[in-house]
Amino acid sequence: xxxxxxxxxxxxxxLRLLLWSDQARMAxxxxxxxxxxxxxxxxxxxxxxxxxxxLELEEGDGCDPNHIQDDLSVPPQCKPLLSNRVALHAQLIxxxxxxxxLKAYRIVELLSRTPxxxxxxxxxxxxxxxxxxxxxxxxxxxxxxxxxxxLTHIGIFDESGVPxxxxxxxxxxxxxxxxxxxxxxAISVGSDPLADPSYLEEALRVHQQLEEVEVQIAAPDCxxxxxxxxxxxxVLRALALRLLPYLPDWSSLTPPALLVKGFPSxxxxxxxxxxxxxxQLLASIGSDRMEVLKISINRREAxxxxxxxxxxxxxxRFKGLKEVELRLEIDIIWEDIQPVLACGGLTRFSLISHHSxxxxxxxxxxxxxxxxxxxxxxxxxxxxxxxxRPETGSPQxxxxxxxxxxxxxxxxxxxxxxxxxxxxxxxxxxxxxxAPSRGRLERLDVGFSIKDDDLDANAQLGHLLTSWxxxxxxxxxxxxxxxxxxxxxxxxxxxxAGVALSSLDENIEDIL
Length: 512
Fold this sequence. Notes:
Helix content is 31%, strand content 15%. By secondary structure, it is α/β, with parallel strands linked by helices.
């Protein structure tokens, strides 16, 4: 065996790059690799049935997890013994992602009667995906089976079509459990309105130490009491709200609900809702530490009084704002987003459209952005119909505009802007390779960009991009783009940068 494998830190970094199955094979090579690979294998547990083999069940006792009885009120009779081996492995588990179906529930029920809980001394994250619609299960068993005092993150997510009642039981179990280290809570209870959403508010109220909260619920369940509880969490730093419209005519939050400012420690805020509600949510933020703002406006038609620019004008009061993301499904013009230019400290800006009526971005608009945000590192302006001329259907942004942008703003590292890369009308650019740009662009996502469809054009375009930006390492190709047309360009860029060609199909959603 090569001596490099004897260096634990180096071996661990190499093993982290492998798939889980390959890590398992490496663990069977020798004792040295076993000691390095086992902590990686057990760090995240995706299937609770992996522990089933360690449960010593009495033959014929009727508690085989593969044969679940309909009546779960009958307690199983099994030996509450785990081997020393599973106790060792349990000490390595940091994160559990558990799909709560009937079989998993029975295994957890068996584990709750064993010393397994005491072995989970490093467990930090527990995420539950509820798949069954049964309200008679004891959700507290999960917290009896897993060592709760060390948990810092809990997530509860339902599957599509699952009634909200089972999720309610698990949320209420959080309220009743001792979770002194809990700092992050994520809850998704589907799009159907709850009979009584007060249990969500109670779970938030009990855990005043929460720093990160993510909630996805039906819009009618976002009650005034829940918002008041969120506003008063003293150390809440990150909040993500996704309010799903249940009916076309659901009403927005009433104005009295958010008259008083709150969220004193908020740093990151994200929400998906309608425009009137978003206005009230933003107006209620009293924190002077805001750095990240992610706004998603759904398709609900706004009245004439609801204007996008009026909502964004208030962003200038967040002096430390560094990242703004706008995902919009409503009609908008350039003047609507101009107030964001007043946030001079932005380092990341994304403007994504999912609507047919959209603004046309041109070089003048790009110049306005570069002048307003001198520290910008990432710029994304894209969408289904963005930056196209209505009469021609081609992007208004040319390659020369991108070069001008990176020259004017050397801090930019990634761009996601659809552009016109055809040689027609740009012969001077393709015929003469200019000096490298002052910018250090590393990633260029092509979006709905267009180009000439011939091999010569691929070589010229790839050579042009790498000569302009010697630091360019990636050309991102979205799934809705003509990938067969852009793949040769992406290969050329990766080859010139010395990057492996195995992951050409990377999705641009990672950078957005």
